[in-house]
# Entry
Amino acid sequence: MTASPGLGTPRTASPELLRSVFRQHAAGVAVITAYGSRPVGFTATSLTSVAADPPLLSFGIGTGASSWPAVSEAEHIGVHILGEHQQELAATFARSGADRFGPATSWRTGPEGVPLLDGVLAWMVCQVVARVPAGDHRIVLARPVVGDPAGPGRPLLYHQGRFNALRD
# Structure
């Protein structure tokens, strides 16, 4: 195998190669929430629109994540699209051991008992329809039930291990 002009030397597939390649992929930032014995949530950059008819979305979650036990049993979850003004909120929900629903987080109980974050660009409450094993993660498929796409601002992005804003 030879390298193409302008490309680096190919490397054998590994977890580090996957992480390195995906650091180059800018992604939108979402927070997924659920309610178990208490509200839980985590920052996700793996949110994907799967189908329009019927409406379906997906996201990945590690089975070792502190939110996994609640998400593994939840009938409904919340999906929140974060704005560029919410970098600290994204960091809080990404940080292990953080008090994610503490005084610094503005939220309310929404439809189906799902925790809803305030001030986001858009949110949906979704019914979980499947949890598909994928290595040390699960891919969760969910059907939107209700939501609001009309929050103010511009989206928050994740690239090269940092939260970023769009540039014109």
